[in-house]
Each structure stands twice: as C-alpha cells, then as structure tokens.
What does this fold into?
Amino acid sequence: MAIEHSRLGRAILRSAKKPDISVRYDSPVTCFVQSVGVAAGRWRLPTSDVNQAWGRGGGRGQSAVCGPDEDSLTLAWQAADRALDAAGLSPESVEAMWWGTARPPFAEGPSWTQLAAVLRLAPTTNGFVVSGSSHSGIDAFIAALDALESGRLDNALVIASDAVSPAVGGAFEAIAGAGAVALVLSRTGGAAHVTGAGSTWAPVLDRYRGDSEDETRESYDGRLFREQIFLPMMAEAAAGSDATRWSIPDPDGRLAAIVIKQLSPAGATAALISGAARTELGDTGAAAPWLGAAATLGEPGSLAVMAYGAGRATRFDIEVTSPVPGADRVAADLAISNTATYVQVLRARKRLTTTGESVEMAVPPGSAMFVRGNRETLGLLGARCVDCATINIPPSIHPACVSCGGTKFDEVQLARTGSVQTFVINHTMPQPFEAPLPLIVVDLDDGSRIQLQGATDGSDIAIDARVELILRRYTVERGVPIYGWKVQPISTAQPIEGVSS
Amino acid sequence: MSWNRVAVIGAGLIKMGELFDQSYEQMAKGAFDAAVDAVDLGFDPSLIDAAFVATQRGTLWGQEGIGGNTVPSALGLAGIACTRIENACPTGSDAFRVGCMAVASGVHDVVLVIGVEKMRDKSAEEGLLARAAAGHPIYTRGESAPVLFAPFATRHMHEFGTTREMLASVAVKNHHNGVLDPYAHFQSEVTIEQVLNAPPVCHPLHLLDCCPQTDGAAAILITSAARAAEFTSAPVFVAGFGVATDHPYLHEKSTFVGLPATVLAAERAYAMAGVGPTDIDMAEVHDCFTITEILDIEDLGFVEKGKGGIASLEGDTAIDGRIPTNTSGGLLAKGHPIGATGIAQLTECWWQLREDAGERQVKLNSGFALQHNVGGRGSGVSVVNILTRNP
It folds into this structure.
C-alpha cells in the first residue's frame, strides 16, 4: 500500500499518495437499486447503563439490541420482507439472495436455507451467506453486483444484518447494535444505481471472534487502530469519489466525523449521513453501511456508502435519480422507543442464566419431525381441502381434512394477518420458557385458524384485535436455533387487501 | 330403558394428596383394599378374573410406560388378565367403560377397574407444566395444561359476560364440598376474594382456578347385573356410557365456548341410559379448572349455553342446588390424580346413589348420577358414565 505512515491519522489523510483504486460502473449501468427495507433489534439499551454497571461514567446515545427471540436471521427476514414489499416483487421471483452477517445464527449450518424458507423463495433461487467480519454486508452486495453485471441474473436480494454478542464488560458491549438492511437490486432499472467503487485491504487484527468463541471482542489498541488502520484505509478507499453524502461506519462513535472532515477540508462538499443511524442504533456492524444510507435513498443526489471490517475498506458510489421505494418508511421502522435494562439484555444474550435444568423439547432438532416439518412451519404453509376449502395447518399432520374428511389438498401460503379468536397469557412454565407468554388463536384473513405464541407480553392482545405474524426465534434447543412465527398487534389500522370488511 | 347389564358391587379410594410416603404400588393396594372392604356381603379377591388399570403417565415416577402387570403384582393377583388403559384425562372413566364392556360381553366375570397416578414424585413443574415443551415444536410450544382450557375462559367471558367472580364461585363451592369429603386433597374453605387475588397461572385463570397436582388411587369392582345380588343388596347399575373425540389441536376447534367431545359423549350416554339431563340427581364433572365446570354443565345440558357462570354464582350446582355438581370437592379440591380421577368420581356417585355420602348427601329423585371427564390434546377426549340405583 502506498501509504506514508505518521502518528496522526489526519496527517496521513492530507499527505498520503493515493493509488488509483477506483472502479467505474456506469457505462453501462448494470446494478440498479429497486427498493430498500430496514429492521433493528426491538430494544434500545442506553450506553450509560452498561458503563455504569462496570463502574465507568458517562456514555452518550444508545444501541439497538435483540430481544430474546430475535437474532441476525429474524432481523434479516424483517428487512427483506419490507424490501420485497416496497419493490412489489413476489418472493418466488427473487433469482438470488446474498446475505452478509458477521453472526449467522448457525456458525456452520442452514442459515441461508432457513432464511430462504421463511421468505418463501423459489427452490431455484441461489446465493449464499457471506460472513467473517463487519465487511460482510458489502461483500454480499459485491456478489450480487458481479452477478448482475455478468448478465446471469436480472434481480437479486441483498441482505446485511448483524446481531453480535459483544464481550461482556468491554467498551464494545456498550455500543454494539443489532440491525438489518435489505436491497432489491435489478439489472434493468431502478430509482438509484451504482456508479463507482474503491477498496483496499491490510492484514490487520481488529474486531475479533475466534473459533469456539461466543463473544465478539475488540483486540486492538484504540489509538493504533484509529491512526494506523482505520483512518488511512478509509481515506484510500474514499479516494476518487465525488459523492456529496457519505455513510461511514463508525467503530467508536467519533471516527466517521474525522473521516468526513478529511474528505472535505473546506467543510462544503461532503456531508455525513450515517450519524443518525449510529446515534439511534449503535454500531450495527455488517448492516451499518447501508443502514447509514437507507433513509437518504429517498433523496436524489450522489452518495457514497463505505464499509470497514477485518482489514478491508470499501466504498460504493450511488446515484439516486428518484426516491427509492421503501426509503420513506425507514425512519419509522427504526424509531422504536422500547428501552431495556442491561439485565434484560444480558438475559436475552444468554450471558445471565438461571441455575437448574431446562425442559427439553420433546423431539430434538435433528429429528425427522423437523425434516418433515421445517418447510411447512418456516414457510407458513397450509393444506386447503379441495372439497370444502378448509385450510388444514400444518399439512403434514393432516392426511384427512379436519372439517369434511376429504383427502385431496392444495398447498397454500397462509395469510400473515388476522384477528384474535381467543388467547391466554401463560405465567407458569418451567425453564427455558419465560413468562408472561401469550398463546394466541388467530383467525387469519384467508379463513384459516392457527395457534402461535405472542411476540409481546400480551397486555396489548384482546379478542378481535387485528394482528400480524412475524418471524421470531422460538428457542435455542440443544444449541440449535428454532424459528417460527409469532403474533403481534398491527400497530396502526391498515386496510387489508382482498378482504371485505 | 337403561342398559343396566353391569353392576358396581364395591368402590373405594385412598385419601388424595401429596403422598410422598407412598409408592405407586402402595397407593394401588390401598385403593384396592378399600373397594374390597366396601362390598356389602364380603368379597374374595380370587374371584377377580380380569383387571383394567388406568394410569395416564408413568414418566412422573420414572416409568416410560407401564403395561398391565405392575398392579396385579402389587395386589397379590399376579397372573390375572390385566390391560393398562390410557386416554388422557378420561383415562379412569374410560377404563371403567371398557371394564363394563368386558363384563357385558361375557368374556370376563368379575372385573377390577383401578386407577392409580403418581404425580408428585417429580416437582409440579416437571409434571403437567413441562407439557409446555411437548407436542408440535411451534404450534403447541408453551402449551402447559392450563392452556388447554384458559382460551375457553377468555372467549366465554367475551361472548356471555361470564366474570371472574362466576369462575371463582366454582372454586368456592368445590372447596366447601372438599371440607365435607375426608378423601379430598384440600380440606379448607376459600373465599371469592382469595380466588380473585390468587397469583395468575394462565390468564384469565389464577391459582385457585386450577386443580392441584395430586397423588391418588381409586378402585371399583364390577360384575354382571345377574350376579350382583351375591355381593350386595343395594347394587348400583351402569345405566349407560359414551366416549367421544374432537381434533387434537386447539386451532382446529370449531368453538371456544364449549367442548364438542363432551356434548357427543353425553348424547351417547343419555341415549344408552334412556334418560336426559333433567333425570340426573347429581354429577361429578371434570373441573380441572373453574371454567371447565362451567363448560361441562352447559355441554351436559344441565344449563343453557352461556348460563353456566351465572348458574354457578347463584348456587344451582351446590349440594342443595338444582343440580348438585362435584359434591366430592371435584378435581379442584379433591385433586386430580389423572388415572384415578374418573374412578374416584364414580365412587362418589356410587356413595350418593346408595345414600352413603354423609354430609354431602344429595336428595335423590330419579335415581341417576352422572360422571364426566374431558381432556387430552386440544381437550379432545371426553367420557360420560351414568349410574343408577334403579334396577
């Protein structure tokens, strides 16, 4: 690398002899952004609460953290569901999905396929999970970009999500955020498109989680990282862009501002747009680059999205020609004010656990029952009786219709909205269940009836309440995450298409 | 015209409770001895040529499953024909029904039906609450036993204006009856306020809306109606019975204000006995939760659908009420050792029809008593047995 090292990062930025690493993607344009969707962990943890617990003073801002039934997969589903909805693209039409995350739910296992199943993608859809660092979200984007440029695909779904488990007691714990962003990309057209890129790398150790380790920790000297790694590499990757708006990941809450200052010494041309997401959500890792830019995809103009992770720095230039569908709801989807205590967060991350034994699920996750049932349970499938139209749920346990005894069925995808028929709130269960746990019988809008857990404490559930189904992690059984759908109220009265009132 | 082909010649049970000092086998022996001792003209156990054992879950005392041989061995009857029957909460009442059919068929002559359940060798959490982790990994996850009935309370309250006070009146009445029953697990009165203020178990049910987890055993001796006079001058006859099923998942229910399996089982039992709800002098019904008794008295036809709550609050189901229900204290006060429950209920009916129920004795008019259980996955299995003192 042609970088002159000095003690101060800003001096490097001024004096570095920058190699030409920029790439142009605009003749012809082959990567358009059709839509965007975002999600964040449902809790907000004040940074000062964590600091206080460890005898440290102060700490501004907050981070988005997962509740006990959320993780990088549920966040990925939520963002992708919103992006597909905004694009008006049916899941079966998605040609490929790339998912970048530093923390796939299965370190080795069916992360991609379970996400594909809950999104109801077609069996022909391809793609993969990209992992390894907070650069993974951009890596997923690069995979899609290359496939679109090759002409092999006409569309792709790119998801960046993260929900790391930060080392308890370290500084990173107080700022680690959980979030996700999804983009529907197209080769043929869209409201925004990629115009250029730049990247560089160096074999350095920074944020780290070793094999067999469960916690992500920062294994560097902060000053060394800032001055010798982050600032010079970001400067190098940024070189050559004429973007006026910049999304820059911010590992400690102050570095993005320094980078932006060096980009525009006069303070006139480059504006930092990722500050709001950083303040609201913390450091969302692999999701940070696009989360930082998501809201401003609604405003025409040129912007640069930067990523950093594990010694790699990358920039993409985006030209927004008209508001990107989905950008208008980004702010609302991230504006959750559900403050959690540090103890709640430690419990959700399984860092604080009760003594005693937990009741095991009656069948282990490796059972044939899951082989038979995962597709229909994750994909939320039913069997509609050809004779009487009753929808039997789930299909595999209903060789005969519960209403008429008929034996011919059509497989159907169940509606994701409905009304509460009846419910209970269970307060008394052994470990690993946590009370209060609502169990809700819902009359779905397709005429079927289903029983699922509630995603809230149940205080907002009533008979006839309008509800929607959302993906959640039901439990971690014998080390294996088990996903399923839960019920939550539809917060605002929304007209349901195709259902007469 | 009632069926009346089989007669009950003896019945008995042990004091219900947390019987930490008794094994499964010892409880069985205690109930068996009580039934033998209750035979008016004396009884030689060697006359028994078959037994039906009602035990719902062996896992609570360390048995994956038990067959028909454990109980005969404990009773000194090793060698006899014996079959274990399991059919959810109606396990005991269904074993009785099967025993009656065995006698009526002529295959067996004198039959022992015995229910034994060890619930408390494990903690209460490992019992019916641990059910939360069984079944479908998603669609029933979290479904501990109260979840099988609480959704009906939510809906019944919504549709009919049933109140928690009405639910509580069931617990108050059954605890009162329990004080009068020396075999009851609980021997204390409770007030409406205590029921309302008890900790929540499964909204809208609170602690005193729920039956306890109880160890217990009960036994009944039956033979053909023709042979009954050899053993007693006051036989009680089996007038009729019915069993019915409904779908095993709650989301498959056609209604949440009643239990169709109970309605069907009752229809069949009434038809076989040639009687109707108004002919029943007293009933022992399945009150695992307060709401269950309210559903039962509606589904069995004692009160109009939707009126079960107000009928309970107004005393219709008290010992001196229009339709005395759960005079033994019911599952709420006497306890619910699952396999033994139905047989203990039948024992109470037997006592009542023979006017042996002491302070709990109801006034007999038509001479019929009804026993009922409902439960299992989706509350989808129900059994109704009707006894009569009329020959």
Remarks:
- Confidence is low (pLDDT under 50) at residues 1-19, 493-501 of chain A.
